[in-house]
Amino acid sequence: MRMNAAFRGKLGDFTLDAAFKAPAKGVTGLFGASGSGKTTILRCVAGLERLSGKLSVNGEVWQDDAAKLFIKPHQRSVGYVFQEASLFPHLSVRRNLLFGAERAKKAGAENAFKLGDLVDLLGLSALMDRDPAALSGGERQRVAMGRALMSAPRLLLLDEPLSALDRQTKEELFPYLEILHDALSIPSLYVSHDMSELERLADSLVLIEKGRVIASGPLHELQADPALPLMSAPQAAVALTGRTNQIDKTYGLVTLAVDGGSLIVPALEARLGEEHRLSIKASDVSFTRVAPQETSILNCLPVKIVSANVQENDPTHVNIVAALGREGAGARIIGRVTRKSQEKLGLMEGASAYAQIKSIALAP
Amino acid sequence: MADFAELWPPIRLTLLLASVTTVFLMIVGTPLAWWLARSRAGWKEAVAAIVALPLVLPPTVLGFYLLIALGPNGPGGAVAGFFGGRSLAFTFEGLVIGSVIYSLPFVVQPLRNAFESFGERPLEAAATLRASPWDAFWSVAVPLARPGFITGAVLGFAHTVGEFGVVLMIGGNIPGETEVISVAIYDYVETLQWGHAHALTIGMLIFSFAVIFTTMLVNKRIARVTP
Questions:
Q1: What ipTM was reported for this prediction?
Q2: Domain containing B107: what range?
Q3: Is the model's pLDDT at A172 over the cut of 90?
């Protein structure tokens, strides 16, 4: 754990009192409803807002009230991507990208990113001499990401970078975020109220409710935790990482090894050994007590039931957490079935069953 | 045919006064407008009201207090003492001080509006990109507030050119020292020199129109470039 944060202060009609740790690598999602305080936390990390608290990043202390220490925002090595791109309207795309880079160089900060690499990675080469006003919403946000990364950050902060965009633009921007996710060696905090974004991007998660941290940990663990509200969401799902170990060119299918089993997923392009993130929705998982035969469903895996809880606000359905593998030693997935089926099949804690997964979404 | 050569000293003096005043207006007005735009102090509106007072005060009232302040028994007299003078009233320096105070709202208001128009966000973005507040002011705030600077400078200059009451109160009409165009026009009318009065007034009319028209065109062009 390389980032340690604790903030406390009045926020509207509730008190923000949030403490969490984040790993030194990967994307940590800050997830919560609108107004839960997640943007305030991000602003506190950047130093744009000052609540009382303590903050250290990569061993550097940025705030410590006991020691009367508060590093000013311009002296913190953060890159910040705002909800609206907030580019400087009086500067060209190139000048925007170089704004932080020039100052980072003066401060003697070493930048892992070269302008040319980032321009290629984010597809900006045709935009360099344009004014921000002449860019589309998605283009602006790409420039904003490039600008933040050019300032040699050691921590990247993203405040709902997609939420101001329409659905189509969002989809266009996703691949860039995923490329960045893979290319970045620095940790990032990603604020969002949209779980589907975090399912695709986040490695770990901090759940925030009314200014408090209610849970934090690896994404797939929190998703499959019956004590947390994530499971009751209509779109509840679990994100797993699998490694390609078999390719079936005839049918366009790949086999991905996940913790505790292997999954067959349609994919036209694949390379052996490649890691992919896949997402399994609770509504796509059903259970049988005997191994199904002659079914059109490709993925039927032996599982052990971990828990069965009635869906919040809906007593007709039950959320079942199942661990992959006969002994239940593998990754956990969740399935949503009717309470009638659950009782009929005796899908109780400790029971063995087979999970049938109707479809699996594979991140590109 | 009247001798129009004598019109030159008041014109020269007016342009000099307006130029020097505008420089001081920008130096004083910019930090003041910045503070008014950014400060969260509750009493800043009281300061804003004091700055705006010349808009509503009769020039004679302002002129009266300035006359006392600049005179031998006021702080102006004390300052003049250092330079071997007795008073700042009825001097060019006194006129500059009076003009800066009189024209200040015409500079502070457009600048404050310009600084407020772009909000905190560009400055926050600059801070996360390692720009110190001083750096961000020059590299972000000033360029973004450019229309405000142009409007403020032009209005400050033009308003100083057109000032009459305060100048008459604290400067009088010493030719070459304090007699500016507006006062000269008054003197020519008093002495029935209609030809000179006509020449100066039509000149002022054309000048004022040209100034306002150009400013509007420039600001419109800027607005097109940076929406």
A1: 0.87
A2: 4-225
A3: no
- Whether residues B226 and A131 touch (CB distance < 8 A) is answered with yes
The answer to whether B22 touches B211, Cβ cutoff 8 Å, is no
Question: How distant, in Å, are the alpha carbons of A28, A158, A267, B191 from that of A219?
Answer: 9, 17, 24, 91
Q: Scanning the structure block, which residue is given the tokens 């006969």? A: A326
Tell me the two tokens of residue A266. Answer: 């349609």
pLDDT tens string A101-151: 999 999 888 887 889 989 998 999 999 999 999 999 999 999 999 999 999
Give chain B's domain count: 1
CATH number at residue B215: 1.10.3720.10
* A344's tokens: 């009929």
Q: What's the pLDDT at A312?
A: 84
Query: Cβ B130–A82 below 8 Å, yes or no?
Result: no
Domain architecture of chain A: domains with CATH: 3-223 (3.40.50.300), 275-362 (2.40.50.100)
| DSSP tag of A114 | -
Q: For chain B, state the CA radius of gyration.
A: 20
Query: What is the rounded CA–CA span in Å between residue A115 and residue A126?
Result: 14
Helix (H, G, I), strand (E, B) or coil at B71: coil
A219 — pLDDT class (breaks 50, 70, 90): very high
> CB distance from A104 to chain B under 8 Å?
yes
In A, which residues are within 8 Å of B121 by CB distance?
A: 82, 84, 86
Query: Chain B residue closest to A83 (CA)?
Result: B121
A100–B227: do the CB atoms touch at under 8 Å? no
- Residue B224: its pLDDT value, please? 64
